């Protein structure tokens, strides 16, 4: 079910549980600002989620309330993960769903990193 992206932050959301080690993930990378792990239902040959360590509901929340060091550290981590996955040469797509219109389901800010194939049009045109 889609969530508003406006909070308040729910510490029982699935990504908060992954950050606390309460449920497992297939980890790709971790540093003080970010954790990257494989999406449980991949929609491309490479489909990795990168999440900040802090409790941000959505991109709106993160961009408005995170500190400069967190924003810089997180952004650099996303780029680092793309490189680790070998996607720099062929390219990749980043996507962040914010709120109901975008269909955000997990209320902890995350960036989807897709790659490993030609990814087609940017949006579904139904
Ligand atoms: P969004 O619709 O942008 O909120 O995307 C949420 C994503 O989280 C979906 O692609 C799900 O497949 C993924 N997801 C949900 N639970 C897990 C989990 N336990 N481990 C990895 N990915 C998950």
Automatic annotation (TrEMBL):
The entry's keywords: Hydrolase
Sequence motif: Histidine triad motif, positions: 108-112
Matching SUPFAM superfamilies: HIT-like
Residue ranges of domain HIT in the record: 14-124
GO terms for MF: hydrolase activity
Catalytic residues of the enzyme: 110
InterPro entries recorded: Histidine_triad_CS, Histidine_triad_HIT, HIT-like, HIT-like_sf
Cross-referenced Pfam families: HIT
Protein name (Swiss-Prot/TrEMBL): Diadenosine tetraphosphate (Ap4A) HIT family hydrolase
Lineage of source species: Bacteria, Pseudomonadati, Pseudomonadota, Alphaproteobacteria, Acetobacterales
């Amino acid at each position: 079910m889609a969530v508003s992206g406006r909070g308040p932050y729910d510490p029982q959301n699935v990504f908060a549980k992954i950050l606390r080690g309460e449920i497992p993930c297939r980890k790709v990378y971790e540093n003080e600002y970010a954790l990257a792990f494989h999406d449980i239902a991949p929609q491309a040959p490479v489909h990795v989620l990168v999440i900040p360590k802090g409790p941000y509901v959505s991109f709106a929340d993160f961009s408005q309330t995170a500190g400069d060091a967190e924003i810089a550290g997180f952004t650099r981590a996303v780029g680092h993960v793309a490189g680790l996955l070998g996607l720099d040469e062929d390219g990749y797509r980043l996507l962040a769903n914010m709120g109901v219109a975008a269909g955000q389901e997990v209320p902890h800010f995350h960036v989807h990193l897709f790659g490993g194939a030609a990814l087609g049009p940017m949006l579904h045109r139904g």
